[in-house]
Amino acid sequence: MVTRVLWPDFYGAVTETTSTTTHYTSSRAEDRVREIETLVERQKVTFWHLVGAFAIPVGGGFLIAWGGFKFNQKQRERDEIIENKQAQDGAIQAYLDQMSDLLVNQHLRSLPNGSDIHKLAEARTLEVLLGLDSERKRRPLKLVYGLGLIRNRSNPSERNGALLDLENLSLDHANLTELSLQGACLRAADLRGADLQGADLSGADLSYADLRGANLTNVDLSNANFSGANLLPYDEQYPAKLGLHNLKDHALPSVDYLHSLAKHYSAELKRLRGLPSRQTRSLGNRLLSRKPITFTNLTDTKLADANLAGAILANADLRNIRGLSREQVESAIGNSETLLPKVDDLGRPLTFPKAWSDGIKVQIKEFEALEGRKTENMDSQIQKHHNE
Question: Do the domain assignments include residue 277?
Fold first, then answer.
C-alpha cells in the first residue's frame, strides 16, 4: 500500500489522502489478473490547521518586526538625545568664541551703551540661553557675570545697571543652585520654576523678574531690588494665567484651591506606583495632562533691606523669611491669602496692610502709576547730568 499526503487545498478547504490496493485473482503467474482499487479520503481543514500554517509564521514574523521597530525607536531616541546635547555644547562654545571676539576685537567695554556691538552681544546672549536646557543655562550666565557684563554699576546717571541690557533673560526652570550672582542685573528675567537654592543674589536687581514657582530656599537676597517682581504660584497648565499682564483682569484663585490641585496631583502620582503597568500608563497619561501648581518657596530666604515695593506676594507664605520688616510688607502687593509671620525682624507685630483689601488689580495700577512718575524724574535727572 502506498499512501501519499498532499498539502492542504485551501481553495477546496480539504486535504486529500489517496490509497491504492492491488488484488490478484489467480495464483498462476501467466494467467494472473490484477484488480486495482483506489480510495480517496477527504478531510476538512480545521482552525488549528490554519493557525499552524499561517498564524504562527505570520505572528512570529510580526513579533520580530515589532521588536526590531522598538529597538530602532529607542536607538533613535538615544541618538537624538546625544545629538541635542552635542548641539547645545556646540552652541555654548560658539557663544564663548563670539563673546571673546566682541570683547577683544570689537572693544565692547569701551563703547557707549546701546551701540550696535552691545545689541549684538545682548541678542546672542538671549538667543543661546533660550535654546539651552535647565542644566546648561548656568554656564553662559556665569560667563557674562564673571566678565562683569551684567553687574550693577554705581553710576547714578545710567538707567541700565549693567553693560548688557538683558531684559526678559530666559532662565525658566534653570538649575542655579548655590550660584553667586552678587549685584547681578537680572531685571525682568524669566525665572519661572528656577531652582535657586543656596544662591547668593545679595544686591541683585530682580525688579519685575518673573519668579513664579521658583525655589528661593536659603537664598541671600539682602539689599536686592524686588520692585515689581512676581512671586505668585506657577500654574504650568496655564502658564500665562498668573502672569503680570493677566493679573489686571482676572481674580486670583484662592490658596486653598491651588493647594488642592497640587495635593491632588501629588496623591495621584503616588497612587500610580502601586498599579499594574497598563493601568499606570492609562491613568498617567490622563494625569499628566493636568500639570502641577508650583508655589514659590521662600523658606529661610534672606530679605534684609531688600526693596519689595510692588512685589506681588499674594498667596505667598512669608512666615519663614529672614529679615522681613513691617515697611517691606506695607510696600508690597498682597491679599488675604498671604501668610505673614506674627512679628517682623525687629519684633514688631505684623498685620495685613490696609491696601491689601483693595484687591491686587488696584494695587498693581497704583504701583505702576508711582513707577511712571519715578521714571519721569529719573529721565529729567539724566538729561540734566548730560547737559552739565
Answer: no
